Amino acid sequence: MLFASTLYFDIMLVLALALLGDALPQPITARSNSDLSLTAQLRLADTAIERYQLLPNDSDFVFNFADTEDLPVATSQNWPALVGVGAAFSMSQLPACSMSFLHLHPRATELFALTSGHVLSEMVPQAGVLDNSKNSTNKQRVIRTDLRAGQVTIYPAGSFHTQVNPDCEAANFTAAFNSDEFAVSLVAEQLFAFSDGVVERTFGGSIAGEDVERVRSAIPVDMAIKVEECLVKCGLGKR
């Protein structure tokens, strides 16, 4: 009987120690991030010092717009040095007689600076911002600016905006964003991605069901839309 009691006590002691061991903090096993992209490794870094260690070359801090084959925009996805900085940058041009898609940036405010040429800009702020100017009808306010070289305008995050180059020469611009991953939402393309019923109701039934697909297929795929009256003025052929 004494042997059985001792055996029972020993078993209970072992179980208690095992449970106590499970409750104690366990050492963290180091994980390798080598299979992650450099951008992902930089986002997981605990300190700025570690981020600099992941960018050992001086050339890591230079972005060359002349070598970009896609959209001329520097973000944390194609320039990892921007991780943690909270900024992105673009340098491009709006061709003669063209208009950029109506779009917005959901995660960043944009500063749009014209370095040469002439651009007409239109921006619609958030809902509820009304036109209270003289002779207005309290409709949605539209902010229109006539930009020349050396001038800057601002597009707050989430605001709809577009630019038109009404002249026969390309307009060069730079744009700065207060997010390293600002994103772009294309208004027409994304609106008509909804089902036909949603589109019909959104326009109050003014677009009949059979016309939705026709409008959807007519949305241009180029980022710059040609302005017909300007093409005539400049004697330029439509692409």
TrEMBL record:
GO molecular function: manganese ion binding
Source organism, top-level taxon: Eukaryota
GO cellular component, one term: extracellular region
Domain Cupin type-1: 63-213
Ranges in a coiled coil: none
CDD domains reported for this sequence: cupin_OxOx
The entry's keywords: Manganese, Metal-binding, Secreted, Signal
Signal peptide: 1-25
InterPro entries: Cupin_1, Germin, RmlC-like_jellyroll, RmlC_Cupin_sf
Cell compartment(s), UniProt: Secreted
UniProt record similarity statement: Belongs to the germin family.
Protein name as catalogued: Spherulin
Organism of origin: Aspergillus sclerotiicarbonarius (strain CBS 121057 / IBT 28362)
Source taxonomy: Eukaryota, Fungi, Dikarya, Ascomycota, Pezizomycotina
